[in-house]
Amino acid sequence: MADFKYKKSFEFNDSHKAFRPPKPCSSQLLARKYDRAAYDSHRDRVKSSKPSIDNSPPKRYMHLEVKLKKMQMEEERAAQIEHDNRLLLAKMSKIMRTSGAIDNRNLVEFKSLDREKRQSELVAIARENQAMLKRIQARQPNLTAASQEAAFTEHLRFSNQVTTHPDKTMLYTGSQSDFEAAESVAESQDLAQQEEPLTEDPEAETATYKSDDEAADEL
């Protein structure tokens, strides 16, 4: 009741309207003043009330407003551009003062920390390769051309011995004159066999064939 501010009767703008209290009262004038004062007090409390939820914007920090890293990077880039421009200006002034030249020489000598180690490894590998090459060159072959030729000649001789009709070209493997002599001998043998008369007795032929087979078995 102490917070209520009662108004006088002439302060009501709607005094011409009849006040109808919701509850029965002895004095409508006092009831109207009381209700009006309660309503005004309620409106004042509503206006001055604070929210229970803090929906105010968050606090703004300086590192969000002023980006120092970005400013530093921009300053460094500007300094690098200024440095490059100075170098370009110096080169252009030198070209204008002189006949001009191309600076394409690289006088920097690249040195490796393990160069000596790699060189020693290469030298050791080269020595091992040379020693291996000497061993390979000094190695004598197990099979020679002379031994192979002698073995082939022996093989031809054995094959001619066990063959019923030996090859004329494989009788001799010597010089050209020996081969021609062997060929002439073979031709003379063929002519002698052709000139021999044929026997009409089948039993004699059978006996001849048997003797040849037996001779082959004996060989």
Structural features, described:
The chain is mainly alpha-helical and 219 residues long. Among the domains are: 9-45, no CATH class; 163-197. 61% of the residues lie in helices and 0% in strands. The relative contact order is 0.03.
Task: Kindly summarize this structure in a few lines.
Among the domains are: 9-45, no CATH class; 163-197. Helix content is 61%, strand content 0%. It has helices at residues 28-48, 62-65, 68-97, 115-138, 145-162, 176-195, 202-218.
How would you summarize the topology of this molecule?
Blueprint: H1 28-48, H2 62-65, H3 68-97, H4 115-138, H5 145-162, H6 176-195, H7 202-218
Question: Which descriptors would you attach to this protein?
Answer:
219 residues, mainly alpha, 7 helices, elongated
Mean pLDDT: 76
Q: Which range does the strand content fall in?
A: under 5%
**What order do the helices and strands follow?**
HHHHHHH
Rg calculated over all Cα atoms? 66 Å
Low-pLDDT runs: 204-211
What form results from the Cα inertia axes? elongated
Report the structural category: mainly alpha
Number of DSSP strands?
Answer: 0
Residue share in helix? 55-70%
Q: Enumerate how many helices there are, as a single number.
A: 7
Main sheet overview = none
Distance between the termini: 156 Å
